[in-house]
Amino acid sequence: MQKTARALGIWEIGRARQIEKVREGRIVVVDIGDGAVASLTGYPIGSEPELIGDDFPALFRLLQELENRALESWYVNVLALYPEYRGKDLARGYSTLRNK
Q: How many CB atoms lie within 10 A of CB 38?
């Protein structure tokens, strides 16, 4: 199936956004020499609650209310790894990285 120019543009935009998230530390990929074995996508929640004004999108209101109760923690959107790598303390290294 051939992609249209518009579809290719969308994929390029998505790819650029993912690369930026990697640079910001919002996406972490674990590679222990055999290629990617685990990945985490998330972001730190700051120390101050975010204002939820009347113009705040209703779709995100409940999530923001929850984040405002979990200050100075992390929102984990996706955490994935291959089953054979479970229980090998891969998250321990990420915990150390994010606290730097």
A: 20
